[in-house]
Amino acid sequence: MSGRILVVDDTASSRVLLKARLAAAFYTVILAESGAEALRLAEENEPDIVLLDVKMPDIDGFEVCRRLKANPHLAHIPVIMVTASASEAEKLRGLRAGADDFLTKPFSELSLLARIRNLLRMKLMFDELRLRGETIRALGLPDIAELPAKGAKRVTRILTVAADPLVADTWAQALARQLSARTATAQGVADALAAVTSSLPDAVVVDQEIGAETDGRRLVSILRARPETRRSVILFVAGEGRQDLAAQALDLGASDTLIRPFEMAELVTRTSTQLARKHLSDRLRESIREGLMMAAIDSLTGLFNRHYALRHLRAMLARAGESGRPVAALMLDLDGFKAINDTHGHLAGDAVLREFARRLQENVRGVDLVARLGGEEFLVVMPDVDASVALSVAERIRKAVEQPEFRLGEGEGSVRVTVSIGVGLSEPGETDSEALIRRADAALYASKNAGRNRVTVEKAA
Ligand SMILES: [Mg+2]
């Protein structure tokens, strides 16, 4: 995985050393020698990761990190803070400023590179989600960031897994208290998987020692591979001096690691940072799904919308051109719908449209596409048909609408609804979807003129 890394350090020798190590691992390195330069270069280059020195004369690393995280264009870029010596308090300060990790020099190259790989993977996922969001905007749809958040805030669930029940319990209690999470504990792989199955956790904290039969790294890789926990936060806790195991856990898919000894506050902060990231990406994913739905679906009836249906019809005609099998377009218009609205109100009108959509869907074939073009006007696109099949489906729809009457809601009685239908059939090799729609429209007009509640197939040219 390649990546662009911004190295920020006021000491020339540190910059040179890091650059050499990172370049040897095939990363592109950008150097900054002050906090101010770092902020400028981050803006100009949009790096994939920032390696940030804590002690600098102009703006210190904490402040640079805070400013990066406060900038909406740069907030998604992972930051690793680097220092020669750090107290627990300083480390926590960095993590709380929004840093993704805090490494103390001298750190092993192994740890650094594993952490970089892990953060690059994560950023790649975010970039992909952001890109999909932009595609949705490019389709002329609402900015997914502006869509209202749906649903009530869910309780955060955390599972802690350790061979020593006291250890699992201590972590669980700290996380439950500080993050208002619902927690559970487990020992060993089988127990952990049973716990995951009964109640899916947002985060799993896995100790290096989880039981006699295996160690925590195996559980990390099992959890990461399972579909239901693929997106869960996984924190791996390595024993004292076991930076090597922590690095392996990152490569196996851990979201973050801790190395003993650590303070509970560090466990809480790292878990909370990872959970915030997970919630953001869950929300992005959800909004993309919603955005795509809005791109294709009519919200009243749940049918496809005009935009999608016309695009689909064009694609279908292009494909039919190759197979030589004609495509039928059925234009449908409810008869006297304005009168239903005027007499019974718009809510009743909406109920009629929804019920019509339901009957329509029940009476087409599985491969047919049903869309609401707008108002009381609908379209069915049928691939691979001849005139007799299209006519029989259209007749079936007409009859299914005519009877029984449409119920208007509890105690509101019912109303007779009928539909006029026009059928257009594509000519061999025809790719002009608008011409086909026009012919179906003309046939629909003929049905209306002939007294409504009937089907007209376009006359052969
Ligand atoms: Mg320095």
Describe the structure.
- The chain has helices at 12-24, 35-45, 61-70, 88-96, 109-138, 165-179, 188-198, 216-225, 243-251, 264-296, 306-323, 337-344, 346-363, 387-402, 433-449, and strands spanning 4-8, 28-32, 49-53, 79-83, 101-104, 157-161, 182-186, 203-207, 233-238, 256-259, 304-305, 328-334, 369-374, 377-382, 406-407, 414-415, 419-425, 455-457.
- The chain has 3 domains: 1-107, Response regulator (Rossmann fold); 147-291, Rossmann fold, CATH 3.40.50.2300; 304-457, Reverse transcriptase/Diguanylate cyclase domain (Alpha-Beta Plaits, 2-Layer Sandwich).
- It is an alpha/beta fold and 461 residues long.
- It contains 15 helices and 18 strands.
- The protein is 49% helix and 18% strand.
- The protein has a 6-stranded mixed β-sheet with strand order 11-13-14-12-17-18, sandwiched between helices. Strands 2-1-3-4-5 form a 5-stranded parallel β-sheet, sandwiched between helices.
- Helix 12 packs across helix 13 (346-363).
- The chain starts with a strand and ends with a strand.
- Strand 1, helix 1 and strand 2 (28-32) form a beta-alpha-beta unit.
- The structure holds magnesium ion.
- Residues 9-11, 53, 55-56 line the site of magnesium ion.
